[in-house]
Design brief:
about 60 residues; mainly alpha; elongated
Length: about 60
């Protein structure tokens, strides 16, 4: 079984974190804006679909 060495673990973690390419502020803002826009678009889409299904159900069952 491997020996647990906390100091080596910390060195390994620091080494791996140094390899990470972090996004720039501009990239972060752009991707955040795209996520918000796509979420809003999906919400509107599902609202419309839900309303159409509700309308169809009212027509079929005569409720509402």
């Amino acid at each position: 079984m491997a020996k647990l060495d906390p100091a080596q673990y910390v060195r390994d973690v620091r080494s791996e974190v140094a390899k990470v390419t972090w996004p720039t502020r501009k990239e972060t803002l752009i991707t955040t804006g795209l996520v918000l826009a796509m979420s809003a678009l999906a919400a509107v889409f599902f609202l419309v679909v839900d309303q159409l299904i509700a309308l169809a159900m009212r027509g079929v069952f005569g409720l509402g």
